[in-house]
Design a protein that fits this description.
Elements lengths: L13 H4 L15 E4 L23 H12 L7 H29 L10 E6 L5 E2 L5 E4 L2 E3 L1 E2 L7 E6 L6 E7 H5 L5 E2 L2 E2 L9 H23 L9 H20 L9 H12 L13 H13 L10 H8 L6
Parallel strand pairs: 1-2, 2-8
Antiparallel strand pairs: 3-6, 4-5, 7-8, 9-10
Length: about 325
Amino acid sequence: MRLQGLCVGLSLLALLAAGCTVRAEGARAPSTAVAAPSNEASPPAEGPTDLPPTPTSTPPSLDRVEAAVSQNESGPVTDQATTDYVWAIINNADRLWSKWFAAMKQLEPTKSYREPYVSVVTVQPGTPYTNERCKVEVAPGVYQTTFDSAFRNAMYCYAPNGHGDDRGVVVVPVQALQKLWSGDIYGRPVAAGAAIGDYAAGVVLAHEFGHHIADELSVQLGVKAIPNGDKNNELLADCFAGVHAHALSLGTDGRLDPGDIDEALAALEALGDKNPTSTDPHGNPAERQNAFKIGLYGSEANKVPGYPHNCLKAFWPEGNW
């Protein structure tokens, strides 16, 4: 069943709120996020498993993790609570974006939109993860391909993920991520007086998932990818994270707590480029915050909040969206 005309231009979850059908005929339930054993030296061999249908209320796992975090405000967040939070956010993003791809397939049936797939590695203490396709320059000309749980970054790698010839692996070192709760943003402190809390980690995870979405659009639609080293590659992922935050704000599948947006903006400020001559530009603090806000609130050209095309037009105009 195709979407009715009133659905055009609506945000990600507003498609559901408007009563529109978003699953293409014959499509499977959303099933993109796949756990990969954290101690494997290569991408997982097995393909994705189906996720449960989107719940009609807040996922219990997200509620439980929020409660656990609140109880640990004066002490460290546990590895298990962090891992639970990772999967709550990733599975939520998986459902949201799978619905969007299905909706776009109905709106533009001549294009090759299909359900995206990604694998996710949560790197646990004592079980480093190695992937020769995940290369991080840690010094000039020196690249690291093995990552332990304290590695100060999360990353998206264009690497085989075990689903046919598909590509896309999100790597999340758990112990480094849990420090984001307290305002330690991969070794960069948030600004004095800035908000700290769990959604600093949430926006990082949504950002990495955003890279996956950009890759899927490039491959599926044959659109030339944003070149490596172009900061728009990172700003697009920040903007997609804002789209995800807007979907959470609707409360139909997950939720935001008071202060979560401030936590996300504080993290992006800390992560923004302070060196204008960076060889791996991600955008300065203001640019990163602005990109997130475009995804969350809408752009000057289009005030519709949570609308992915606002991000595409702002940071990937070459795609003629």
